[in-house]
């Protein structure tokens, strides 16, 4: 998406010259000839960058005063000062008040473009660094090779460039925000901001201020931009949107419809260009029936639905994810990494993971730090928490000293094979084909063996 640059100069020829130079390079532009129109344009919609003349004839404020006002309201917008009567003192004052650079008139077009590109790049890097500080330690890719997660990645690749709104559903910890960030990163807005509003943690009375911002200007309260305004040119994520109060839901419907809104305490409408994504761990149709979610908002958000599979639906991904999380935890803690034993992997694959990928990541970090033993010793199933161990296949808890020694050889072998195959079926979610591949049997032979051992179709699930 093209960057928008606000040009502020009292000379029409200069405005036209700069506008032409920037337009030829693909930038969008707006112009202002006075302090009042400049601040009004800045407040109506935040530009990506401002080119600001130091001296403005007929205005109550000079360029330095306008610079201070803009920086007080939105420090992240870079401002390049220009002047035909520049002095070292003026340039120093501009830089001290937050200007990115200072250019003397007349200037060469190439020099202006170089400074504009550098200012925009510096702004982008600062924004990315801020996002990384906020989201440190969180994934920005969906990992796994299962058919389920491959289908999600394929959907993201298709919908990301379109600009359509996407409603991402799934259980807590299933990777909904990661999917939203992937959509943004693969969209035409990738150079714009990605702003997330967590509806589940925000107090009900704060929603509208966080969304729309605060006009300020009375009792010492300054203007505060909301997430809709901060996401201009980029993507806004409404995380767990079902927790948004009904009253706020009604107000955001109009903002989504015409991309305009009013700040709290203000009467001027602010126009933005924002792509809105939303996530939910609830059934929004049921929430609509219960009167807790507006139907008109639902249909504005669900242009493209995207469902994140639960981790228990893609058990094939668990070994790789667990190993990756162990490596990351080791790097973060400064510890040597450890391997998982086959019985531990089987136990992890048998567990249902109500907390999904987030729960697996936290568990791997805890096990690495808390479990004793050499880094050369693999992590065994009995080292895992009881909540995971209790769901481990029966084979992993098989007590040979009390059971098998009292049985004839054939019965002991049948008991072992029964528990072994039940464990593998559980590990692979009841999938006969994957189980047969892992244990080294033909699919038809495995069917016969299961029938011979009395393992019913209910026990082994779908093939």
Walk me through what this model shows.
The protein is of the alpha/beta class. It folds into 4 domains: 4-134, Response regulator (Rossmann fold); 160-308, Rossmann fold; 312-390, Helicase, Ruva Protein, domain 3 (Orthogonal Bundle), CATH 1.10.8.60; 404-453, Arc Repressor Mutant, subunit A, CATH 1.10.10. 46% of the residues lie in helices and 12% in strands. It has helices spanning 12-24, 35-44, 63-73, 88-96, 109-134, 147-159, 176-185, 207-212, 227-230, 246-258, 284-289, 295-301, 318-333, 342-350, 356-370, 386-389, 409-427, 432-439, 443-453, 457-460; strands spanning 4-8, 28-32, 49-53, 79-83, 101-104, 166-169, 194-198, 235-239, 260-262, 269-271, 275-280, 304-307. It has a 5-stranded parallel sheet, with helices on both faces. A 5-stranded parallel sheet has the order 7-8-11-6-12. A two-stranded antiparallel sheet has the order 9-10. It is elongated, with a radius of gyration of 30 Å.
